[in-house]
């Protein structure tokens, strides 16, 4: 079972999520905010006001994403912010932190 232990706002609609196995992944949620309760998260100031609750990221209006969905999303989407972060800091991520390709 996977769950979120920490999350940090990066930019736009991207969060750096830490999972219970200590893997950190960038998750871009921009394309997930187009329906229902998630529309409120399009307001970037509101989007930034999240907390960890029930083992995932949650917002004041009750919007949340299953940790498994966040992990899958981080593995299947290329996030340009990752490249900018690595270039700006000059640091390298551990191989364990790299997304694993999924067979489709």
Description:
Residues 86-104 have low confidence and may be disordered. A hairpin with a 4-residue loop joins strand 2 (14-19) and strand 3 (24-28). The chain is built from three helices and five strands, in the order E-E-E-H-E-E-H-H. The chain is 23% helix and 26% strand. The strands form two sheets. A three-stranded antiparallel β-sheet has the order 1-2-3, covered by helices on one side. With 104 residues, the protein is of the alpha+beta class. It has a single domain, classed as NE0471 N-terminal domain-like (2-Layer Sandwich), CATH 3.30.2020.10.
Set out the fold topology.
Layout: E1 4-11, E2 14-19, E3 24-28, H1 44-47, E4 50-53, E5 56-59, H2 67-76, H3 80-89
Antiparallel strand pairs: 1-2, 2-3, 4-5
Mean pLDDT: 82
Could you say what the CATH topology is called? Answer: NE0471 N-terminal domain-like
Order of helices and strands: EEEHEEHH
Return the structural class: alpha+beta
Alpha plus pi helix count: 3
Q: Name the shape in a single word.
A: globular
Biggest sheet features: 3 strands, antiparallel
Order of adjacent strands in the largest pleated sheet: 1-2-3
| Sequence stretches where pLDDT stays below 50 over 5 or more residues | 86-104
Give the beta-strand count: 5
User: How many structural domains can be distinguished in the coordinates?
Assistant: 1
Strand content: 25-35%
Spell out the CATH superfamily: NE0471-like N-terminal domain
Gyration radius from CA atoms, angstroms: 13 Å
- End-to-end span in angstroms? 22 Å
- Top CATH class: Alpha Beta
CATH architecture: 2-Layer Sandwich
């Amino acid at each position: 079972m996977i769950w979120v232990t920490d999350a940090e706002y990066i930019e736009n609609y991207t969060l750096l999520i830490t999972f219970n196995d200590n893997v950190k992944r960038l998750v871009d949620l921009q394309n997930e905010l187009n329906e229902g309760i998630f529309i409120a998260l399009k307001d970037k100031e509101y989007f930034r006001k999240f907390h960890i609750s029930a083992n995932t990221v949650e917002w004041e209006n009750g919007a949340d994403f299953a940790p498994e969905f966040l992990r899958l999303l981080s593995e299947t989407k290329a996030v340009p912010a990752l490249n900018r972060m690595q270039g700006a800091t000059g640091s390298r991520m551990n191989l364990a932190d790299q997304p694993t390709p999924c067979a489709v």
